[in-house]
Amino acid sequence: MTDGPLIVQSDKSVLLEVDHPRADDARRAIAPFAELERAPEHVHTYRLTSLGLWNARAAGHDAEQVVNTLIEYSRYPVPHALLIDVAETMGRYGRLTLATHPTHGLVLESTDRAVLAEVLKSKRTAGLVGDRVDEQTVVVHPSERGHLKQVLVKLGWPAEDLAGYVDGEKHEIALASPTHPRTPTEVPKEWEMRPYQAQAVDGFWHGGSGVVVLPCGAGKTIVGAGAMAKSGTTTLILVTNTVSARQWRDELVRRTTLTEDEIGEYSGSRKEIKPVTIATYQVLTTKRKGVYSHLELLDARDWGLVLYDEVHLLPAPIFRMTADLQARRRLGLTATLVREDGREDEVFSLIGPKRYDAPWKDIEAQGYIAPADCVEVRLTLPEHERMVYATAEPEDKYRLAACAPGKNRVVEQIVAQHPDDQVLVIGQYLDQLEELSAHLDAPLITGATTVRERQRLFEAFRSGEISRLVVSKVANFSIDLPEASVAIQVSGSFGSRQEEAQRLGRVMRPKADGRTAHFYAVVARDTVDQDFAAHRQRFLAEQGYAYRIVDAEDLEAPDAAR
After folding, report:
1. pLDDT in tens, 261-277
2. Same CATH fold, 370-556 and 195-364?
3. Do 26 and 5 touch, CB atoms closer than 8 A?
4. In the structure, what pLDDT confidence band is assigned to residue 345 with cuts at 50, 70 and 90?
5. 185-213 per-position pLDDT tens digit
6. Contact residues for 15 (Cβ-Cβ < 8 A; gap 6+)
7. Would you say 491 and 402 are in contact if contact means Cβ atoms under 8 Å apart?
8. Which CATH fold topology does 195-364 show?
9. Where do the DSSP E strands lie in 70-209?
10. Does the domain made of 370-556 have the CATH classification 3.40.50.300?
């Protein structure tokens, strides 16, 4: 028995003692294969899941490494049955492989005939496979490659896809650099791919398809550009919204040898198809007379690479179309693979497994993202508001708590404590945000704000012309505001962990003067607002961020929230 920070239990839960001197080392060591479930103050609970273990296996970690990690950091002997289960679960990955047969084309192979027999007997695989080639091989129609991978994951036998990819239409793309500049004045002197970005590109390319997980502000766009340069082909980039599409275009023009004429935008207002085409999820999932009328974009060119920005947000129709894109290289980019709908297995099977994952604190320690101070400010509701809340219907309770009028005063006090900072106020409910915009005399950006006006306000914020900005959830993702150093969250999408991570990410780009970023969550005490806040914080707690709790009444003191 060692004095380790972990307690590994037979129900596949792993407890981490946060205050243990080796806690940070243990957190990093188990991150590739364990998923955080709960993160209160002193003991965090992780869970070993099949998907987490398969992701680790696909990333090159074997069962021996996982077992040794658990044994090394465990305070008590690790249950023997659990160690066997870990090894057997990881051993399921790759027992089936998709490959290219010289005569029969795409096939499903297995050296374990019983496993192949088991999956072929399932009704779920009916219609997805064809004739038997031999006892270890069965023909798969190329159009069913993605659908079969989905089914095999659900059957507990994830296939390793070794069938390769079509080359796609060639289109030269290179990273601009001091030795390969676009123009002598355009390239920043410090521009070169950071070591972790290069590792992420290599990990993706070696695996062929998959997901790269990097903190907000750590340069996921650069990883995308690096993958495009590696591919040297036409590329389809799918993004969350039009503002994000234009940021991608601007960054690609600045960071690569691509010109504006080579990059098309396929959104609500434009329908351009060029060697590099940036399309929004919204336009691709728009139905006309019950038909997804824009999916022909997928066949418009012989794409060599399909890139998914914010892959954790993929809507269901994009999953379905991705099932048909298995012969194309696919790269997903995200800050967190957490999906509140539980469809992480579809990201795994259709985009690919996690190929690179950098803990937030590691990137912070290297100076590439700003350190962050996270504070939960708890507001006690007045008696009459508590009674209204107590007697409200369940479906109304969150909105009542999240939009408590007292939050306006709290936000004003926090803003007053940061007179020299660029401050974002972020929320879910438009009437609440309109009130805050008026209280703070700050511009408001919502879904109704035109793209041109959004871009104007974002640019004014970047330049320092305005220092306060109130934004709805349209600013959760893919918005580049480097000098934002304070974010105040007043309401959100219930208990969404990925939204919490994205909102913190708005202020994590490193600051010119090296100062700390501040993230405030204003929460109504003794309500579902407080319950949801605890759930929202789980992913960030896994990354090593601890929330200090401050009572709203204490904000009067000048340094109470600093």
Report:
1. 999 999 877 889 999 99
2. yes
3. yes
4. confident
5. 454 444 688 999 999 999 999 988 999 98
6. 6, 7, 8, 9, 43, 44, 45, 46
7. yes
8. Rossmann fold (3.40.50)
9. 96-101, 105-110, 129-134, 137-140, 159-161
10. yes
